[in-house]
Amino acid sequence: MVEMPRACVISTGTEITQGLYADTNAMSLSRLLKDHGFWVVGHAAAPDDENLIRDAIRNTFGRVDLVIVTGGLGPTQDDLNREIIAELWDTPLVHVNRAAEMIRGRFRNRGVQMPPRNLKQANTPKDAKILLNFWGTAPGFFLRRTDDKPALLALPGVPSEWRSMMGRYFERDVLPSLPQRPFTRIHTIHLALVPESTVNECLSDLFDRDEGVMLGLLASRGIIRVRIATRGKSEAQCEQRLARTREEVLNRLPQDIVLAEGPDTLTAEEVVIQACRTNGLTIATAESCTGGGVAKRLTNVPGSSSVLLEGFVTYSNRAKERTLGIEAGMLASEGAVSEACAAAMAAGARDNTGADLAVAITGIAGPDGGSDEKPVGTVWFAVSSRRGTETLLRHFPADRNSVREWSENQALDLLRRCAADLPIQADLTETWKTKP
């Protein structure tokens, strides 16, 4: 078996270490490295401090084959990475005229006078391959691996810039100088609204059965991804391992909990829109505690205008009465967070729009508003379709944002199930396929 080369991602910037921004660069770069056959063995973050950045980079020596450093390539005084890296690799900085002209041109095209300090960005280590930046002002650079140092890829911290640079340069200029990597294949099975522990128990013996297969569970508020990653000496070996493992996984799971199969980034809203487009169905939404979150997620999907007709955010009782035609007497007797209210919201949204499917959500997201009878996290759902109006009660024990996200995922799964003419929830009392 060809060993996977090791990689590490270092994100620099005080804004990251102080918690002002999430380190999304490390997550996205790790995913890209994984897809190219690397084993990411560490993430690090360092503030804009010369000694701490130097230590973070030096700590990768002898441990990895590739280190990617993001940020610290700007024009300001606290952008220190190019100087630190040149020092560690014992090579001087040189001024790259083409990079300087590109920086000048970018300011000229914007009609803005360039501060002289920006030309600092055209300085790169002499022994590095410069990666010209056609999307911003800071060039990146690449240093090949030596006997005592890993290969180093320095990228700007702006995600849109480094993504474009990786697309242009990574396979062409970086990968050829790195150790041979095994062939890899990745496939993800997305599951909806089932307990992670149940899925884990069902698949537990598959996790370590084959050294060429890495099986993982990734759970996120109602959506579970079963991720199958295979590696081997050839594409055919990877495909065989993937096909065998995929079949075993699917044979053990109730089919109606399978949201979809595809890339890691596939979303529930994409599945819903595709299912409705395939079946010629339209949707309306009526939301209270989620504040329009379901409609927003649906409209994130290109082509959703042919499916989503209208979304109602009826947060107050008055809005529910005026917009969806819900009777004030019912609200007074049953309450806004009730089965009756959810059913009336879904029916009202469908009647008002003529949609084929309408989903409604009403609940208590917290942190206030709960009671012994209806604690925080109580959410009623309803979906109206040609089958009639069906309701579902859920209790989500989490904070306000989590309750809302759980609720959005549950509502999207209700739409998926109705579009496919499935029961509105999985029968988790059934006996799942037992392990051989």
Summary keywords:
436 residues; Molybdenum Cofactor Biosythetic Enzyme, Chain A; Alpha-Beta Plaits; Maf protein; 3 domains; 6-stranded mixed β-sheet
Description:
The chain is an alpha/beta fold and 436 residues long. The protein folds into three domains: 6-177, 3-Layer(aba) Sandwich (Molybdenum Cofactor Biosythetic Enzyme, Chain A); 183-262, Alpha-Beta Plaits (2-Layer Sandwich), CATH 3.30.70.2860; 268-419, Alpha-Beta Complex (Maf protein). Helix content is 36%, strand content 24%. The chain has 14 helices and 17 strands. It has helices at residues 14-17, 24-35, 50-58, 81-88, 97-110, 159-174, 196-203, 235-251, 268-279, 293-299, 317-324, 328-334, 339-353, 400-419; strands at residues 6-12, 39-46, 66-70, 93-95, 123-125, 129-131, 140-143, 151-155, 183-192, 213-220, 223-232, 258-262, 283-287, 308-313, 357-363, 378-385, 388-395. The chain has a six-stranded mixed sheet with strand order 2-1-3-8-7-6, with helices on both faces. Strands 14-13-15-16-17 form a five-stranded mixed sheet, sandwiched between helices. The longest helix is centred in the last third of the chain and has 20 residues, at 400-419. The radius of gyration is 26 Å and the shape is globular. The protein starts with 5 loop residues before the first strand and ends in a 17-residue tail after the last helix. The relative contact order is 0.09. The mean pLDDT is 93.
